[in-house]
Structures are given as C-alpha cells and as structure tokens.
Amino acid sequence: MKIINGIGEMQLFSKQQRGKGKTIGFVPTMGFLHEGHLSLVRKARKECSQVVVSIFVNPTQFGPKEDLDDYPRDFEADKALCEKENVDVIFYPAAEEMYNQGKTFVLVEELGNHLCGKSRPTHFKGVATVVAKLFNIVKPDKAFFGLKDAQQFAIIKKMASDLNFDLEIVPCPIVREADGLALSSRNRYLSKEQRAEATVLNSSLNLALEMFKAGEKNAGKIKQAALQKIEGTSGKVDYVEIVDFDSMQPVLKAEKGSLIALAVFFGNARLIDNRFFE
Ligand code: AMP
C-alpha cells in the first residue's frame, strides 16, 4: 500500500493506472476510520481494480466555532485498517498542500439551504470545494459516499453532474451499531450516558417510519412524534425535517422516497442520522 502526500504524485499515479486500463475507486474520508468507512472501501474494492482512500480533515468545511482542532485523528490505526482491506493508496495531504492560498470555491445552490446547511452555513461550500479538488487529484472512475450524510450525497451528485465530472457517484447504505446508532467518528465524544441515550436518533426514525407505514402522511405530525421522543432525553435537537430527496426542500406530505433527517447535540457532539420512507 502506497501513502501519497503530494497532489502531483497522486495525479501521476492515477494517470499511470488509467493508462494501464485500471479503474480507480475512490473513498474520500476525514479518517478515524470505522466500519461505516470500511463498508465503502469494500464496495470500492469489489467494483474497481485500484482503491484510493483519502484521509483529510478538511478545514474549510468546519465553522469557526466547530470541532476542527478536536476532530479525532489516528493515522496509524487508519493505515492498519486500510492495509487489511487491501487499499492500494492512501492519499494523505497536509492542509497547506490542499489549500495554497486558494481563492476558488464551489457552491451548489439551494440544496444546501436546509437541514445541516441552516446551522452550518459554510459547511457544504467547504465540502463541495474539497471534493471537487479531490476528484481532480485522484481522477476516479467511481467515488463512494455514505448515505449517513444524505444531504452531502445529494450535493456531491449535483455538483458532479453540473460540473461534468466524468465519474460515477455511488451511494452506500448507513452502517449502524447493534443497538441502531449510526457509526460516526464523532461518537467518540459521547460519555457513557450520552452514548446510551443517543440510540434515540435511530428509535425516533423508527417511530417515524412506523407511523408512515401505518398510514400517517402528515409530515408535521410525524416530525412532532419524532421530536417528542428525543425531547425525553438530554439531546438538544438542531433539526428534525422531512424533505424531498432531490431538492432537499421540506414537504408537508410524506411520500415513499421522502427523507426524514435529524441532527441532535449530545453535549458537544452533533450527531446526524436519516432514513427514507418506504
Ligand atoms: P467522514 O470521514 O465522516 O467525512 O465520512 C467519510 C465517508 O464515510 C462519507 O461518505 C460518509 O457518508 C461515510 N460514512 C460515515 N459514517 C458512515 C456510516 N455509519 N455508514 C455509512 N457510511 C458512512
């Protein structure tokens, strides 16, 4: 397994592999890898001949008061996990390598106005910019993204289509702990008590899905029930919304394929989760 720090070296590697007729599968991450990330790596391994994982805690997607400095990092552990999954390359650039006084940003309009975009107004601009850069550096045939970050997925897909990136964006299902909590690098911020309470994210989504299956289509009522369930814990709700997946606009009537998404703080840990109505 190669570890590449430089943009030029990464681009050269990809050019050479493509020249040999290899396909490149790409998994962008911020590191501190867990089974959620590894599920993306395994899918990439199955579908492509070369697998590149990037590990980069991207400063431009963090707000000024957010957890950039505290964000968990463990490159040695990440390296061992990637090795075990037969990753070919870890692209591991420094922030100075990625942002050399850059003045250019990518903004996907409208899709970022709701959900996480409301409380993190500069977040998706940072995400879209770094992903566009990574696509130009790694030049993948396929890039794998988790639906845990459903709004991010929708934004990246739109960006890739609008800017004519010649690659496929592959969605991957949410990986959860046995008790339903979605895996996240941020779960490590939780105290034992908060960790136990955090299962309410999944159970409130379950409740919403059950109501929908039982015939309730009123988005307001479903939201209210999910909110009430969370309000019985120490979690502080940032949002619970039911949206149309293509536009990310809130809907009044839930339909098959609508997305219920939520963000809840437990202490300083802001956790997100979502589910599609089916
Ligand atoms: P991150 O390191 O948090 O930026 O995540 C990198 C990629 O892993 C993103 O595409 C995430 O959506 C995905 N991911 C993170 N957690 C999970 C999970 N529990 N299940 C599936 N994908 C995930």
Q: What are the defining features of this structure?
A:
single chain, six-stranded parallel sheet, three-stranded antiparallel sheet, binds adenosine monophosphate
Secondary structure layout:
Layout: E1 2-4, H1 7-19, E2 24-29, H2 35-47, E3 50-55, H3 75-84, E4 89-91, H4 95-98, H5 116-119, H6 123-138, E5 142-146, H7 150-162, E6 168-172, H8 192-197, H9 200-213, H10 219-231, E7 236-243, E8 259-266, E9 269-276
Parallel strand pairs: 1-4, 2-3, 2-5, 3-4, 5-6
Antiparallel strand pairs: 7-8, 8-9
Helix pairs in contact: 6-7, 9-10
Bound molecules: adenosine monophosphate (AMP).
Give an overview in words.
The chain is α/β, with parallel strands linked by helices. It contains ten helices and nine strands. It has a six-stranded parallel sheet with strand order 1-4-3-2-5-6, sandwiched between helices. Strands 7-8-9 form a three-stranded antiparallel sheet, covered by helices on one side. Strand 2, helix 2 and strand 3 form a beta-alpha-beta unit. Helix 6 (123-138) packs across helix 7 (150-162) and helix 9 (200-213) packs antiparallel against helix 10. The longest helix is centred in the middle third of the chain and has 16 residues, at 123-138. The model has no long low-confidence stretch (mean pLDDT 97). The structure holds adenosine monophosphate. Adenosine monophosphate (AMP) is lined by residues 29-30, 36-37, 39-40, 145-146, 148-149, 172, 174-175, 182-185.
